[in-house]
């Protein structure tokens, strides 16, 4: 079994746990900005340590620019993901957002010469069909009461493409992705502090809630760092058209944890969509 495959699977599991913690923060109704501060604060420090150990703790204009793009995709993608969690089940939201892999697969084939087999093409078609039938669910209002969920999920998908697809581009440019992720997480940390200072509503929240959100964020940031670092290392030796779909199975971890621990329930069509997305992802990784 290839090392890149093992790393890709590990990245999905670790990152899936971090995404589930995002849902936990939303479920507990803890303030968002202290949580974000914890996520991007601990993540930045972890990437600084790793970059130093790898001997890539330096900055160039291209690294800074790439880091800013990745940071914008990560920070605001996660922000909209949290908004989507407030209007729909995490067990459905996370798989839908992870369909940004389709854009990465297309980019890898068109611009980097990676080739797809018949099963991978079938997987892409299955994912598109599964997502297309989602708005037709007659029972969707039972768990998605506000159609703004679709807006949040769609824009978050595009933003996460900036993050995940951006790392593919920078890997092809032979730039150090660890350093780029360090800059990206620093962008998230700076935005979180700025937004907190500007938010009178958040500062009026109960101190205990802010502390709990920040503490959970610190733990979440370490899992997020671990998942993204494993993903970045896997991209160094393996094909992005396969690694990205494997990484996207982190949504399976989120879905299972949400169903098991948060007792979320899905309608029949949502379950069909979920199964379709996962089968498509499996076909992409075969």
Q: How would you portray this structure in words?
A:
There is one protein chain. This protein has 286 residues and is mostly helical. The chain has one domain (3-285). It is built from 13 helices and no strands. Helix 1 packs parallel to helix 11 (240-248), helix 2 (32-54) packs parallel to helix 10 and helix 5 packs antiparallel against helix 11. The longest helix is centred in the C-terminal third of the chain and has 31 residues, at 207-237. The radius of gyration is 18 Å and the shape is globular. The protein starts with a helix and ends with a helix. The model has no long low-confidence stretch (mean pLDDT 87).
Give the overall shape, derived from the CA principal axes: globular
- Regions with little confidence, pLDDT below 50 for 5+ residues: none
Tell me about the largest β-sheet: none
Number of distinct helices: 13
Which structural class do the helices and strands define?
mainly alpha
Indicate how many domains the architecture comprises: 1
Proportion of helical residues: over 70%
Order of SSEs: HHHHHHHHHHHHH
Average per-residue pLDDT, rounded, comes to 87
Our estimate of the beta-strand percent is under 5%
For the CA atoms, what is the radius of gyration?
A: 18 Å
The number of E-state strands comes to 0
In angstroms, what separates the terminal alpha carbons? 13 Å
InterPro entries: AA-Vitamin_Transporters (IPR050638), EamA_dom (IPR000620), EmrE-like (IPR037185)
Subcellular location: Endomembrane system
Membrane topology: Multi-pass membrane protein
Keywords: Membrane, Transmembrane, Transmembrane helix
